[in-house]
Design a protein that fits this description.
Structural class: little secondary structure
Largest sheet: none
Radius of gyration: 17 Å
Distance between the termini: 26 Å
Helix content: under 10%
Number of strands: 0
Length: 71
């Protein structure tokens, strides 16, 4: 995939397959293969749940503020 100007998304679906090296739901390469993924810089790319999330909840509480993740 060569996307220089447009926005692109990579969805990793759980299809039940398992690899002995990269396991499940992973993006990887073997041997001499290379993957180059670039995007805009973000101060934080993940957060933790601040409270327990239950099935059916309409929202979740994050430990970090989403606005602090964007530069």
């Amino acid at each position: 995939m060569n996307v220089e100007i447009k926005q692109a998304y990579i969805y990793i679906k759980n299809n039940g397959l398992k690899d002995s090296i990269i396991k499940t739901r992973a993006l990887g390469s073997y041997n001499q293969g290379k993957i180059n993924i670039r995007g805009r810089y973000m101060a934080r790319t993940w957060s933790l749940l601040a409270d327990t999330a239950y099935y059916g909840d309409g929202q979740i509480s994050l430990l970090h503020k989403p606005e602090d993740m964007v530069c």
